[in-house]
Structure formats: structure tokens, C-alpha cells
Amino acid sequence: MTSFAPDSIVLNRKLPLWYQVSQSLRASILGRSPRDPLRLPTEEQLAGHYGVSVLTMRQALKELEEEGLITRHRRRGTFIEPDVRRGAPVRLLGSVDAIVAQQSGMRTELLGHGTGPVPPEAAEHYPDLTEAVTFHRLRRDEQTGEPTNHARNYVRPELAARVDPADLARWPMTKVLRDVVGVEIGRITDTVEARLADPETARLLDVPLLSPILHYTGVTHDPAGRVLDVAVIHYRGDRFSFTVTLDAT
Asked: Which among 18, 63, 129, 225 has the fewest CB atoms less than 10 Å away?
């Protein structure tokens, strides 16, 4: 039987290492194929993979255990929960891998994509553009098929030309731009606010009109500050909460 192979990450020393490792593992767990094994490598193997101490690795695994993604058994090892519910809190701590983790592990349907005028909700971020390429996706819980969120990404045309729409059925736009297109990401600025479901959102998410939703805007910049992508995501209010963790050290 093949072993579980988590993605590699470049750790940011300004953020808690355990958090970055837990988010990378979370993304790998939620994004795995149903045919992949449920048993994780040992703590020592995982620590070596990420280049952290065993104590840091244990803290990362504890976070995933508390979230219900894994179970740990003395002498038997650590196992991915096969029936874990994919809906989860929106948690932001300034890590790109945290964003990737948040958007992974759902069944994704590409509703459409094409070039058009920059919409008002993205215009302030693209003062130099008249047109952008829009990718519209609907995400569902892999187990229940229940819609969880729908997203529009407004991407610079020169970058969008290098995006394979098939990749967006597997990975978030952030991961596609960084790991497939090869764009260097400097920072992502996130805004989350409460709104009421408009007719389109109510239909796509299968919720009553004017029911509460979480409206998320994520603006991705390169290291020079140029905007690469503007993501607008509507989350079902009954499936998600919003949590911010501030590191005081």
C-alpha cells in the first residue's frame, strides 16, 4: 500500500510553525483522492518532511485532531477520518497555505469562464485594466453533495491564458497560480463581511432568499504589489464561521 504524501511548503518564520504545518497537512488531507491510504506517516517522518521538531509536529497534529480530521492511536499510528465533514471555519492567519487549505477538499464544478469588462467589485483593484478573465465555480461537500460556496475569480488576462480550467476542478486558484502557472505571490488581503443572499446566490447555494451568507474577498498581489487575482466567494452562513488568530509574539 502506498503511503500518504503531504505537500511540501516553504515555512515563514514570522508565523507559528505548527500552524503552517497543520494548514499544509489539512490541505493535503482534504485534497487527497478517496483511493489514497488513511494512515499518516509517523510523527518523526512528518517532522523530517517539513523540517520542524517533533514537538512542533505534535502540536500541528493536535490541531487537526481537535478539528476532527484525524484520530491518533497509541502504537497503531495516526489516521485520517474517512467520514470527516468537509465544511469548516474560515480561518485566516496570513499564510498562503492557510488559504489553499481553506479552499481544498470540496467537489468543484466550473460554471463558466470568459473575458469581459472588469466588474465594479474588482475595479478598484485593477485601475490599469479594462478587461479581466472571470472563472466562476461552485463547490459542494464531497460526501453529501450539498453546495457550500460559489466563487468568482477575476484574473489578469495574461495570467488567465496560462490557467487550465481543468486544474480549477482540483485546486484553488491560489495554488494554480503559484504552483502551476509559477507566479510568485507576495501577499493576500482578505475581507469577510455578513450579507444577505441575492437571488443568484440563493439558487446556487440552495438557501432561502435573503438568508445570511459570508461574503469573502481575497486580493492576491505579487511581491511588487501588483494585483494578480481578485476572488469573491459567497459561503453558506449555516456551514461556515469566521475565525481570526492573532499572534502576539
From this structure: 225
